[in-house]
Design goal:
Length: 501
């Protein structure tokens, strides 16, 4: 009779159920790794926007002309000339914002439970597994009060509980530091939201202003691959430049950007609705008016004079008269002669009306002089002393003219005007930018520290940990132990290390 052996098949393990596709997509969108990649891409695009001159920035014309046809085609196709308004830049902002929101939703409940319901009752074995731990013996009937007092001395809020004849003392400080990451998230979202609102609802433009110049429009540039289209943006008010001033590092040097300490532009805003407003714009002091923010951008570095002192000596003898004359200003002499500013050259060359540069090689000013009941004549005053027989130095309207002093000034200033009707820049810079700075300070310079003490008779087991700045916490923990035990601290540590617990 044959024996038959029945082979028993091994049980088949069920395949793990995969998550639904929606959950997997949400997990991917909320992953920290995906968020970091998006942030790196956003930084790279922002660097491109800094390196490639944007279409509404002063100097774009010269930059665009310097490019090769291939560069113009590639940069234009990729949207590099207006990268902050490109569809992909805004898409990355949107997806990164979604990543931050989803990551916060996923992780916030755990973080909140960590600070709202801390672990206050622990075992001795658990304490001895903490990075900082010690066991001390105290012969004192008020052990609990002594431990609580020392915890409070070092800035820890305390909670005391009793269980199974043992007293648990818990202390912590900086617990809301655990929420620092979410404060950073909120600041980043404010930063993104502010910039998005500002970019979508506002515009950036430059306007060139000379003293006495009036304008109620600014010129924008729209780029279309191989051509530029200019169009005017009408302002709801009129801007009049009343004065420009440049503070030089070396007053004897040239009117040059590298020799500039500050630019200052004074403007008058005439608004049919709100009246007249006087504004003073300098490098570190922008001016905001009705959602328009005025920044000092640069200057047209052709040498001019903001003010000058003219010396006039009567041709028939007499005392020299000094007159202070502002650019585009006028003055009157005691005898009724009227002097009007006409033009200034930093490097006068006869027969060349446009002979100014950023250097003052041969400064000269042209004046319109009108004597009493006389005809207006042109007169020239030079900074250099001219020979008496020079034709251009001959008396005019009864006077010889000399340019005694002058204050250097550029030909014009360039103001950058940013329009932000919904306070996007305020949200970005103040709520987002400064909020991010304070949030990072809060995250990195404040730590969440926790200490425990388990009192069992005369034995006190201590443990503690911190989420950052471990060296400082280790010093503080040692001070706590020394305050409780004094010189017995080292022996206590060694005995616990040798016991293998």
């Amino acid at each position: 009779m044959k024996e038959t052996t029945q082979v028993k098949e091994a049980p088949v393990k069920p395949k793990p159920h995969s998550k639904p596709i929606v959950n997997r997509i949400l997990d991917f969108l909320s992953s920290v790794r995906f968020g970091v990649v998006l942030l790196i891409v956003l930084v790279i695009l922002s660097m491109i926007g800094m390196l490639v001159v944007q279409q509404n920035v002063n100097g774009f014309d010269a930059f665009f002309t310097s490019l090769t046809p291939a560069e113009k085609l590639v940069f234009g196709t990729l949207g590099f000339f207006d990268i902050y308004h490109s569809w992909y830049f805004n898409l990355i902002l949107l997806v990164l914002s979604l990543n931050i929101v989803l990551a916060s939703i996923d992780r916030f409940p755990t973080a909140w439970k960590f600070i709202a319901d801390p672990k206050t009752e622990v075992t001795k074995a658990w304490l001895l597994h903490q990075k900082q731990n010690a066991v001390v013996t105290i012969s004192d009937s008020n052990i609990t009060e002594q431990v609580v007092g020392i915890f409070k001395k070092y800035g820890y809020g305390t909670k005391v509980t009793e269980k199974n004849g043992r007293i648990h003392i818990f202390g912590e400080s900086g617990r809301f530091n655990r929420l620092g990451a979410y404060i950073v998230h909120v600041a980043l979202l404010m930063l993104f939201l502010g910039h998005f609102v500002a970019l979508q609802t506002g515009f950036d433009a430059d306007v060139q202003l000379k003293p006495t110049q009036t304008t109620n429009a600014i010129e924008l540039i729209q780029f279309n691959l191989d051509k530029q289209e200019r169009f005017a943006a009408q302002l709801p008010f009129t801007i009049t430049c009343t004065d420009i001033q440049q503070t030089l590092i070396d007053p004897k040097g040239a009117i040059d950007i590298s020799n500039t300490m500050d630019w200052r532009t004074q403007i008058k805003i005439d608004d049919p609705q709100y009246g007249t407003t006087i504004a003073d714009v300098s490098l570190n002091r922008p001016f905001t008016y009705r959602g328009y923010r005025f920044f000092q951008a640069s200057a047209i570095t052709l040498g001019m004079a903001r003010s000058m002192t003219i010396e006039m000596t009567p041709a028939n003898g007499g005392e020299t008269i000094k007159v202070n004359l502002a650019r585009d200003g006028e003055a009157s002499l005691p005898d009724g002669t009227k002097i009007v500013y006409d033009n200034f050259w930093s490097d006068f060359v006869a027969g060349q009306p446009e002979s100014s540069s950023n250097e003052y090689k041969n400064p000269a000013v042209k004046l319109k002089v009108t004597p009493p009941n006389g005809q207006t004549v042109d007169a020239y005053a030079f900074f250099a002393k001219l020979p008496d027989n020079a034709p251009i130095a001959q008396p005019k309207a009864g006077y010889k003219f000399h340019l005694a002093e002058f204050e250097k000034s550029p030909s014009a200033h360039v103001l950058s005007i940013k329009y932000d009707p919904f306070s996007g820049h305020f949200i970005a810079w103040y709520l987002g930018g400064f909020g991010l700075i304070f949030a990072l300070i809060f995250v990195f310079f404040i730590s969440h520290q926790r200490v425990w003490a388990l009192v069992d008779g005369e034995s006190v087991t201590l443990g503690g940990n911190a989420n950052r700045n471990h060296l400082a916490f280790n010093d503080k923990f040692n001070k706590i132990v020394n305050d409780l035990s004094g010189d017995s601290y080292v022996a206590s540590i060694n005995s616990q290390s040798n016991s293998g617990n």
